[in-house]
Amino acid sequence: MFRALFRLRPFVRTSPEGAPRARRSKRGRAALALVCGAGAFALLQVLFVVFTELSPVLSDPIYAARERQLGALRTEKPNDKLVLFLGSSRVQDAFRAGAVNGATAFNFGTPGAGPIANSLYLRRLHRAGHVPDVLFLELMYPLCADGGPWPQEGPLITADRVTRTERDLLIERYGFPGDLYRRLWRRSALVPFLTHGFKLIGRAAPDALPSNKQMRAAHGADDHGWLAPLEGLKPDPEKRDKQLAHYKPWVTDWRPGPWTHAALTDTFDLCRERGTAVALVLMPEGTAFRALPNPDARARIDSYVAELKAQFGCSVIDAREWFGDEQFLDGHHLLRPGAERFTARLVAEGIEPLLKARGAK
Amino acid sequence: MLSLIADAPPHDAGFTSGLAYFRWLHELLPAPFFHTQAFLAFFALVLAVYWTIPRRFQMTRIWVLVIASFHFYAAWSFELAFLVTGTTLLDYLFGRAMGATDRPRVRKLLACTSVCMNLGVLCYFKYRGFFLNELYEGMRALGMDPGFTKLNPLEVIVPFGISFYTFEAISYAVDVYKRKIEPEKSLPRFLLFILFFPHLVAGPIVRAGDFLVQTRRPKRWNWLRVQLGVQLFLVGAFKKMAIADRMALYCDPVFKDPEAFGTVTVWFAVLAYAIRIYCDFSGYSDMALGAAHLLGYKLTNNFNMPYLAANVSEFWRRWHISLSTWLRDYVFIPLGGSRGGAWFTRRNLLLTMLIGGLWHGAAWGYIAWGAAHGLLLVFHKVFHDFCESRERLKAALDTWAGIGLRILVTFFCVSLCWVLFQPELGKALTVFEKLFSIQKGQTLLLSNWALWTTVGVLLACQLILRSGLWAQLHARLPAPVLGTGYAVCLCAALVLAPDAGTTFIYFQF
Q1: Any chain A CB within 8 A of the CB of B449?
Q2: Residue in B222, B487, B496 closest to A41 by CB
């Protein structure tokens, strides 16, 4: 037996280094590395999803940039009245909020924002403690058009931009397609690094993105949210025709959509609850844009605006015909001189009277 | 044109009228690309089923892989999946028949039939459109009536990976005929050799001698092998998603419309394309190798840092190794190799590379690319012979500076050749015109620093790998650090992937 044991020893120790043990330890190390890798990946994913639920910094960077700027302004002048202008890129380019005296004015115009996005943004702003005293709300009527089963804004408010609660609100209240939107939301939550990747790069190294994807709207605005149109630009008929072709199907035979009306109602209700004065603004348009709705549709737009005014007791600023075609880049986005003129007129005719009525100095 | 290929919609026509089962399959796995969520789900299912089967049921495992591979292809096109399976069956029968007889003439006839059948399938699907259209143009130019209409190249359906599996089948027939290997007796093993989904659509081109022997070894779950597989898959996904697809943003618009861009932008696009094609194809190969390792199989390594090659000959020993060795063994050597005189060898080199070019695609661009590489190889051989008798020149070229210069010159030549690597020769010539005459034009919307950063990172990674530093580091890193590295690599690939990813360039071949 003693001999047998001796014979076994070399069999067990196949090499002086103890190769079988080393192999076992290598296998264990490999398994541990893989388990750690899977765990770390899952953890990173979960953290990312939780982060996007808690903060819009990565999920909705343009909104987050604006909110951050607004927060900074409010910290500087905490006692000032707050004048907020919610709207689309038309507002973003046109309103130089820094020109307003006697109150903190902020341009919260963001690309593609219609009544539904504005309603969401106002909710978020309220949660962040930014309750405006006066709200200028753009009535971007092409986005209010009844476009069938879904709201026109549906494709613009992508599922990766909203939280779970907002997703449910959009589905239940604003007619977003439930199954599809939930699926898209789940997908973006399942692979958040893929979904939010370009936003992450846009924040960390915007130069790595093509210039048309660098989200100039998020990073290029001034302290008051104005994304100043570049100097020296001129009206571009090619761009105008492209924009006209884009908006034509929505506007030609315009009728108000139920979902956007619900969003507008919610916005007005939120403002009433918080004591915010609201002014509806129809932004300036070039002649070709103004001619897009047929006479019946135009009448419907006018009567809808009148109804809103009567229903919610808001003031209305109809700026559609304020400027000629030479002031627009593409028929509905103002060039820099146009923006200056628009701001001056809006301050004189809209902001100052409302502020005075609210008792501002 | 590159992006036209890349963005070409998957072959959907067959699914409108096909069987409901295959339509359903197509919805689940619309394209056979490894970096898609659908493939990962499919692969996870295959892995789970495969490793759940006890080891003693080795043949059941093989059948599982055969069925999975068939479904992988059938999800894209069930008709073509049946075609591939059918030709594979015939190759199997030809092999068995060759094994059953000792009469040289019969064996030769069977081998020729098998080779001709595979080449026939390849020519019918891949080259028919090209040759008929060239014939059409030629007859029209001579004022004759062709008697048939011109084919639209976009309407000609070329089965994914046809060049890869036909070459595998040809090598099998030749090897059996030459008695290098025994004909495979087991049908499922032979089916797996051709249909194995990790290498089915874009290689590497496996040899029967290497693969069939692996099907006989019982497979055990091995964490080391799994780790290697996962590592390769992750590196491949990173190369494809984070580098190749990103580089496509630089080169695709320029190669699509070279007229519109200025000289500097076109030079940047050429550099970006060289990186893109390497990361795209080697990324795919890495993923294929990784997937195969996870199933317990080892495929041929297809790349070995080709852009660090110091001459074109070395480049071809490092680039698409499975194809270059195939061409060497089944074209260059049968043509006479370098056994004859200098001119004979040069002719063989040129012919081999021309066939290599034609293998990539039925278009003048690919043929010109093959010819250019053939000429480069001939030039290298001449220069090599010239240097042999000049000791000082040889010594200078072997210094660090000399090697660096040779690497740069090789990379420059290879990158210029990539310009030809597209179906439309006219566009390639426009690119050359732009490259060598200062012309103004558009610039890209991208900043060039991202391109230079990619070049720098890629070069650093290759140098670290070549120096063996990574091997040392990998062995010493604690497992949790290594694991976190995998997670970070995957997250980085997902973050850096452009929102509009592209297909793999080599899938068209």
Answers
A1: yes
A2: B487
